């Protein structure tokens, strides 16, 4: 068991969730507010926030840094770059390099030269892309929804038969109903070993979907429970981190006593580990964006069901 925990601590990428107005540095070592991009100060240890090519686009000639000229219905105005990228009905027209929008969408700084924009959506390109996605789906289905040792729609992962039905998404309640319809239930992670096998399977098969788990916050006793009534594990290596601009101190209990003191001489920390108190959401999930660490999510969000066969 100690070896498995060590592998998890070494092998998994740290799951850091940035706020809506932040991106990660290229080396993922910290979250960076938009206002720090191209401010002539290396806020990222790898210098990715001051990349010359990036800054030439970020500091465009039409507006101040971090803004872009948006033209809609014959009217032009400078708007924040994130507004330029996400505005619809009508969308912004202008000269902003759309690769900047890709950086904001993926929430990661990267050289513009490494970003490849999609096609111009010509009918032939759209058709070929659709066929390619279909071929990819068939390859993945063989690894995620079939196995000679498991019933239909299930595959063997470690010692369990699991169903990764990533071709559909729904609320937590609907996902559970689907699992029960195919003879199982939403997955409850019973050990570090099961969790290790699960994440390895997702990574090896390059699955990028988000999945509901069989965990939820019980309002009766204010605790996180699996569907079988057992308490969910807390902390590392299961739950993701969230970063905030504000910071808080942490308390520890002195060993062998009931005394509580501030950790590390009252150092202030920007990271909070899910699930938060009170929870951000009342249903548990693992998501690609958080490197498949668990997080508390809105039960009405659309995620895919991750089912385990009832033994």
End-to-end distance, in Å?
24 Å
Q: Would you tell me the overall average pLDDT?
A: 83
Tell me the strand percentage band: 15-25%
Give me the secondary-structure category: alpha+beta
CATH architecture of the largest domain: Roll
Uncertain parts: 1-14, 119-124
Mind describing the biggest β-sheet? 8 strands, mixed
Q: What is the tally of beta strands?
A: 17
User: CATH homologous superfamily of the largest domain?
Assistant: Mannose-Binding Protein A, subunit A
**Range of helix content:** 10-25%
Q: Please give the domain count.
A: 2
Taking Cα atoms only, what radius of gyration do you get, to the nearest Å?
23 Å
Shape: globular
Oligomer: single chain
- Give the SSE order as H and E letters: HEEEHEEHHHEEHEHEEEEEEEEE
Description:
The chain has 311 residues and is α+β, with helices and mostly antiparallel strands. The chain has 2 domains: 22-114, no CATH class; 149-239 and 274-309, Roll (Mannose-Binding Protein A, Chain A), CATH 3.10.100. The chain is built from 7 helices and 17 strands. Strands 6, 7, 8, 9, 10, 15, 16 and 17 form an 8-stranded mixed sheet that branches. A 3-stranded mixed sheet has the order 1-11-14, with no helix packed on it. The protein has a two-stranded antiparallel sheet with strand order 2-3. The chain is globular, with a radius of gyration of 23 Å. The relative contact order is 0.13.
């Amino acid at each position: 068991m100690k070896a498995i925990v060590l592998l998890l601590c070494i092998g998994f990428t740290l799951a850091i969730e940035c706020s809506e107005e932040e991106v990660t540095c290229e080396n993922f070592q910290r979250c960076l507010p938009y206002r720090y991009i191209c401010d002539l100060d290396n806020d990222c240890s790898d210098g990715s926030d001051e990349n010359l090519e990036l800054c030439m686009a970020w500091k465009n000639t039409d507006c101040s840094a971090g803004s872009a000229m948006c033209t809609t219905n014959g009217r032009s105005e400078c708007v924040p770059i994130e507004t330029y990228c996400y505005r619809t009905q009508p969308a912004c027209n202008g000269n902003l390099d759309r690769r900047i929008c890709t950086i904001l969408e993926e929430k990661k700084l990267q050289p513009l030269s490494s970003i490849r924009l999609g096609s111009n959506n010509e009918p032939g390109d759209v058709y070929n892309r659709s066929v390619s996605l279909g071929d990819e789906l068939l390859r993945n289905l063989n690894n995620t929804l079939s196995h000679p040792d498991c019933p239909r729609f299930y595959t063997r992962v470690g010692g369990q038969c699991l169903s990764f039905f990533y071709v559909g998404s729904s609320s937590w309640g609907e996902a559970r109903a689907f699992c029960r319809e195919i003879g199982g239930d939403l997955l409850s992670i019973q050990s570090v070993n099961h969790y290790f096998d699960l994440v390895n399977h997702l990574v090896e098969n390059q699955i990028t979907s988000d999945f509901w788990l069989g965990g939820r916050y019980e309002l009766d006793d204010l605790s996180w429970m699996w569907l079988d009534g057992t308490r969910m594990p807390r902390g590392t290596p299961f739950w993701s981190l969230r970063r905030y601009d504000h910071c808080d101190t942490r308390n520890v209990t002195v060993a062998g006593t009931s005394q509580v003191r501030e950790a590390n001489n009252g150092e202030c920390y920007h990271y909070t580990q899910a699930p938060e108190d009170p929870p951000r959401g009342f249903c548990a999930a693992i998501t690609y964006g958080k490197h498949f660490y668990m997080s508390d999510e809105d039960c009405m969000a659309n995620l895919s069901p991750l089912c385990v066969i009832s033994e």
